[in-house]
Amino acid sequence: MSDSEDHHFDAQADSGASKTYPQQAGAIRKGGHIVIKNRPCKVVEVSTSKTGKHGHAKCHFVAIDIFNSKKLEDIVPSSHNCDIPHVDRKDYQLIDIAEDGYLSLLTESGDTKDDLKLPSDDALVAQIKSGFEEGKDLILSVMCAMGEEQICAVKEVGGGK
């Protein structure tokens, strides 16, 4: 390869790191995370059956999708690997709410993040809007997993008069 060749790289938003990692089904516990039907979920119930005549104990997972709260179930042999999502939670300060429902958020580095919409949870939306209209400093917790982001909590920063 010579230095005169043009190199073209497709611009991608993510770092190329995997969105999931493998873990043995028998090691997944209640309160942990799992991928079921390509959705990141929080495990609410795990039951394990005894080994049958084919030699595998089975794990039955009941889990709730962390973004849309739908209940999903899966049965996996306990010795097999399951995908576990990398779940990350970040806090941002609310700067503005646009008319189209998009939020303007301040990151820790001082940049703005403008690609998040108001969440689908009506109680959370009401809490965000009322706090913003009253001029309170609000910190929004954003849950990130498998390329999706959603606001999951709101907290008020002290100093409100």
Description:
The protein has 161 residues and is mostly beta strands. It is 7% helix and 48% strand. The chain is built from 1 helix and 11 strands, in the order βββββββββαββ. The chain has a 5-stranded antiparallel sheet, covered by helices on one side. The longest helix has 12 residues, at 122-133.
Kindly, what is the distance between the CA atoms of the first and last residues, rounded to a whole number of angstroms?
65 Å
Beta-strand percentage range:
over 45%
The gross shape turns out to be elongated
Helix content: under 10%
Q: How confident is the prediction overall: mean pLDDT? A: 84
SSE arrangement, N to C: EEEEEEEEEHEE
What is the rounded Rg?
Answer: 21 Å
Strand order of the largest sheet: 9-8-7-10-11
Low-confidence stretches: 8-13
The profile of the biggest β sheet is: 5 strands, antiparallel
Number of helices: 1
Per DSSP E runs of 2 or more residues, the count of β-strands stands at 11
Structural class: mainly beta
